[in-house]
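Weekly puzzle thread! Below is a chain. First person to post its structure in C-alpha cell form gets bragging rights.
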Amino acid sequence: MTRFDGKVAVVTGAASGLGEATCARLTEEGAMVVGFDVTGATPVDVTDEAAVSAAMDAVVAAHGRVDVLATFAGVPGGGPVHGLDVDEWSRVIGVNLTGTYLTCKHALRHMIEQRSGSIVTVASVEGIEGTEGGSVYNASKGGVVMLTKNMAIDYGRMGVRVNCVAPGFIDTPMFRSVMGSEAMAQVKDEYREHHKLGRFGLPSEIAAAVAFLASDDASFVTGHTLVVDGGYTSGMRTGLSDLLGLGG
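Winning reply:
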C-alpha cells in the first residue's frame, strides 16, 4: 500500500519542472494522475474557465472522482511598477493567480460533493517576501498564499484541506530561462548564496513536500504555507559563521 492508492490527482503545469516531478512522485505513490498543461496529453489553458471546467468534469467522468489538486501552472514576469505594462501585469496575474482560482474552483465543485479532497497550491518565497523587480510575480504569488488561507477556512468543514507550498529557487526550465544568461550570472550566484544550504533546490524536493501535504500524513494540516527554500527566508547570512568555523 502507498499513500495515494485509489486516489485521483490533477496536476497543472504538468509538462515540465515542478509539475512534472510531482506527477512522477504521486504516480510512484499509487495515484491515478492527470496532468493539465497548455501542451501535452491533456491540453488545458488555466486562464480559460470553460476549458478548465470541461477538463475537470472529464477527469471525474473517466475516474469517478478527484481527490488531489496541485496547481503548478505559472509564468515568470516582473519589472519596476512604473515601467510595467498593464498587459504584462494581466498576463502574469491571469496565469499565476486567476489560473489557480479557476482550477481550485472547478476541483472544489467535485470535492464538495465528495465531502473530501486535498488541494495544494503553489506560491513562492517571492510571495512571502519582496525581491527587486518582482512586482507582479510577487503580487501573484502573495495572492495565492492568501487565497489558500481563505479556501481552508471556507471548505474545512466539508472535508477539504487546502495548503500551499512556497518553493525557493529551484533548478527548473523556467528558472534557467530567467537566470541562464551571462548578464544574470552574478545575480544567480547571489541567489544561491542566500539559500543557507548553499544550493538551489531540486524539483523532486518540492514534489516530496506536495506529496506530504496532499496525503493523509497531513490530515490535520490546512491553511498552511510550507516554505521549502533551503533556508532562503530564514534570515540574513553575514559570513560570521565562516569566522566561527561553520562555513563548510
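Puzzle host: Confirmed. Bonus trivia for everyone else. The longest strand covers residues 160-167.
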